[in-house]
Amino acid sequence: MRYVNSMKRSKHGFTLIELMVTISILAIVMLLAIPDFTSTIKRNTISNMSNDLITSLNYARSEAIKRGVSVSVCATQDANYGACGSSWNLGWLIFVNPTGGSTLTNTATAPLLKIQKITDQNATIAVAPNVGITTYNSSGFPATATANVNFTIKSTGCTGDAGRIISISATGRPSSASTNCP
Predict the structure, then answer these.
(1) Is residue 103 domain-resident?
(2) Is position 28 within any domain?
(3) Does 135 map to a domain?
(4) Of 10, 67, 120, 156, which is least packed with CB atoms within 10 Å of its CB?
(5) Residue 49 falls within a domain, yes or no?
(6) Considering only 2-6, 65-69, 134-138, which range has the smallest mean pLDDT?
(7) What pLDDT score does 69 carry?
(8) Tally of structural domains, the chain
(9) What pLDDT was estimated at residue 1?
(10) Quick one: average pLDDT of 55-83?
């Protein structure tokens, strides 16, 4: 005959103390990780905005060359995106601008090509010199007021060199560089 162990098998699981210790350690790790994660989100916001602006400027420049007519990028007037204004923080409009003026006409000969909306209002775009419109001529060169324009993009509460400066050179090429946040 076999001898059968009469002892009950122990149940596997966690005790209340083990569970509380694990939760405490997890809470400490989260407290250390959250500030760094917030910083990463702010850096990504700034990076996305600067990439959108560079893409839009390059698009306007290439459309000007392709169409053989001036193309402009202007700050939007308001959240309706129907007219040029001075609020780069809301977004911008890209349109064919055969007259080289500072207003959007949106006709068959001067169509609106693209609307770029900015949804994250924690980031700001400052422009120096303060212009509401940048224009590329049919050769892809910037108009007089467009050359050497700098767009500075920063996010509320950013630190270090997380900011970006987008510069339009005298030849019309946009470039990006890091800048310190306040």
Answers:
(1) yes
(2) no
(3) yes
(4) 10
(5) yes
(6) 2-6
(7) 93
(8) 1
(9) 52
(10) 92
pLDDT, average across residues 89-97: 92
Instruction: Give the C-alpha separation, 160 to 89, whole Å.
Output: 21
Cα distance between residue 60 and residue 133, in whole Å: 12
pLDDT score at 5: 57
The model's pLDDT over 99-123, given as tens digits with 9 standing for 90+, comes to 877 788 777 778 999 999 987 777 8
CA 90 – CA 75 distance, rounded (Å)? 8
Rounded CA separation 22/63 (Å)? 58
Amino acid, single-letter form, for residue 53: L
For 70, 73, 99, 114, 126, the CA distances from 63, given in Å and listed in that order, are 8, 11, 15, 11, 25
DSSP annotation of 140 reads S
Distance of alpha carbon 10 from alpha carbon 61, whole angstroms:
74
What is the extent of the structural domain holding 98? 37-179
Supply the CATH number for residue 141's domain: 3.55.40.10
66-71 LR contacts (CB < 8 Å, sep 24+): 67/96, 67/138, 68/138, 69/96, 69/97, 69/98, 69/138, 70/96, 70/97, 70/98, 70/99, 70/100, 70/135, 70/136, 70/137, 70/138, 70/143, 71/95, 71/96, 71/97, 71/113, 71/135, 71/136
